[in-house]
């Protein structure tokens, strides 16, 4: 699930995954050259992180479960990659 709050030239984006069988989830995206950022776990088992990104840009990203399983955001469109996987596309 994605929550987007736009304020001028900046957009606050909260990424939340459903409660799944992962010990850890990292988010990786084109906004920071695909550097892994750990997501925090809620008591419900969901993982979340909030990013502040420039408004008017498009970003590709995905979630990495336990350092090995690549997952996309179910609520957004995806694009294929040169690695044979898919990335989610966030349009701000």
From TrEMBL:
Stretches assigned to the AMP-activated protein kinase glycogen-binding domain: 21-90
Gene3D superfamilies for this protein: Immunoglobulins (2.60.40.10)
Signal peptide residue numbers: none
Pfam family, one: AMPK1_CBM
InterPro entries in UniProt: AMPK1_CBM (IPR032640), Ig-like_fold (IPR013783), Ig_E-set (IPR014756)
Domain of life: Bacteria
Protein name: AMP-activated protein kinase glycogen-binding domain-containing protein
Organism: Hydrogenimonas cancrithermarum
């Amino acid at each position: 699930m994605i929550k987007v709050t736009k304020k001028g030239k900046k957009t606050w984006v909260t990424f939340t995954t459903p409660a799944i069988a992962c010990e850890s989830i990292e988010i990786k995206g084109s906004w920071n050259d695909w550097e892994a950022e750990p997501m925090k776990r809620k008591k419900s088992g969901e993982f979340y992180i909030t990013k502040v990104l420039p408004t008017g840009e498009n970003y590709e990203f995905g979630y990495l479960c336990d350092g090995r399983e690549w997952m996309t955001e179910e609520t957004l469109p995806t694009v294929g990659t040169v690695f044979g996987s898919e990335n989610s596309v966030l349009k701000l």
